[in-house]
Design brief:
With 366 residues, this protein is of the alpha+beta class. It has helices spanning 46-54, 100-109, 116-125, 141-153, 171-187, 199-205, 223-226, 341-346; strands spanning 5-16, 19-31, 35-39, 62-66, 69-72, 85-88, 159-163, 192-196, 208-213, 216-222, 241-252, 257-262, 269-273, 282-288, 292-295, 306-317, 323-330, 333-340, 354-359, 363-364.
């Protein structure tokens, strides 16, 4: 197995009180870089799979190969504490009687540590310089989780596993820690397998997505390929979206807006709320299908200022029989509009027809 991949195969029946409760049946090869999100409804098998990867959950019929190193197969079963991995749980689990600095040193003493320069860089990366003398009881939930993240980076690992690290935080604390996770992704070469049930979190952080359903892989691939098909999951039709990159090209100070170009195309310009982004910055945007409408003409007598010339490239069914998904090609970018079957018929929409995509809302996700 190449050092650029992670291979995981687990087939296991799980029982409780002599009663069969769950089947895990996963066979997947993942890229050994960036953030790989495990996504799915509660009970889909996300945490079970993560625990199997770590060796915390015993699976007799399983394989785990990380960057060419066999952690488990028919003849090998490396104990969890001997695997080069770090595991971040929902709760930070810091030692309450130790300061932040001592919590970090405690982790270093129990595993192969990084060098002193790297440790200093990690403290700076996680913004912990002013917190080192604090006890866990003096920290907010977001600060505790930042310490937990720093602790995982202080030791030399081949894989970082995160089990919904933001689940116990309120919205304000989530928004506080998300930029640190983005910095972590940008600064480390260690792949991160990240469990989340929040699709907006996945859209913001993930490079690759594995969708689990009833213990099996329902779909997987780069985030830009998976999110447009998320409507296939029960109850997720409203979350169908596309993720795009855009470059900040201008600022409209009078209106507190910025202009961004999609895929470096001057013909695909959007106006977004100015949140202080610098000219030249590359942003990740998420456009929900329910926030796109379609018009046959370019109407400038509308409050919708983001209108792009498009061509219909595909028309797909929707789980709701009253709705339909219309794929739109805008230059090099693909958009999706979720509209009613009635509108599809009224506008006589068909593949190849030129239209205007009207974008009601755009979320900047990083």
């Amino acid at each position: 197995m190449s050092e650029s991949y992670i291979y995981a195969r687990f087939q296991q029946q799980f029982s409780r009180d002599n009663r069969h409760v769950f089947d895990l049946d996963v066979d997947i090869t993942l890229p050994a870089k960036g953030i790989i999100a495990l996504f799915g409804h509660s009970g889909s098998g996300k945490t079970t799979l993560l625990r199997c990867m770590a060796g915390l959950q015993q699976s007799q019929n399983g394989e785990m190969i990380v960057k060419g190193e066999v952690w488990q197969d028919q003849t090998t079963q490396i104990a969890t504490h001997k695997r080069q991995l770090a595991y971040v749980f929902q709760e930070a689990s810091l030692l309450p009687h130790l300061t932040v600095q001592d919590n970090l040193h405690f982790a270093i003493k129990r595993a192969k540590p990084t060098d002193q320069q790297t440790q200093s860089e990690i403290i700076e990366l996680m913004g912990l310089g002013k917190l080192l003398k604090q006890l866990p009881s003096q920290l907010s939930g977001g600060e505790k989780q930042r310490v937990a993240l720093a602790r995982t980076l202080m030791t030399q690992t081949k894989l970082i596993l995160m089990d919904e690290p933001l689940a116990s935080l309120d919205l304000a604390r989530k928004l506080e820690i998300l930029p640190y996770l983005e910095k972590l992704k940008a600064s480390t070469q260690v792949p991160i397998i990240y469990i989340s049930h929040d699709i907006s979190e996945v859209a913001r952080l993930a490079d690759y997505v594995v969708v689990l359903e009833q213990g099996k892989v329902a779909m997987h691939g780069p985030v830009v390929e998976v999110l447009p098909h998320i409507s296939q999951l029960q109850g997720m039709a409203d979350e169908t979206s596309v993720v795009l990159e855009a470059k900040v090209v201008a600022r409209e100070e009078q209106w507190h807006l910025i202009q961004v170009n999609l895929a470096n195309s001057q013909q695909s310009t959007l106006c977004l709320r100015d949140s202080g982004e610098k000219i030249g910055n590359i942003l990740r945007l998420r456009l929900l299908a329910k926030d796109l409408s379609i018009a046959l003409e370019n109407h400038d007598d509308s409050s919708i200022v983001n209108r792009l010339a498009a061509t219909i490239s595909a028309i797909q069914t929707d789980p709701d029989p009253a709705m339909v998904l219309v794929e739109l090609q805008v230059g090099q970018c693909r958009l999706i509009a979720r509209i009613t079957q009635r509108s599809l018929s009224h506008l006589k929409l068909e593949v190849g027809k030129p239209v205007w995509a009207q974008i009601k809302s755009v979320a900047i996700v990083n």
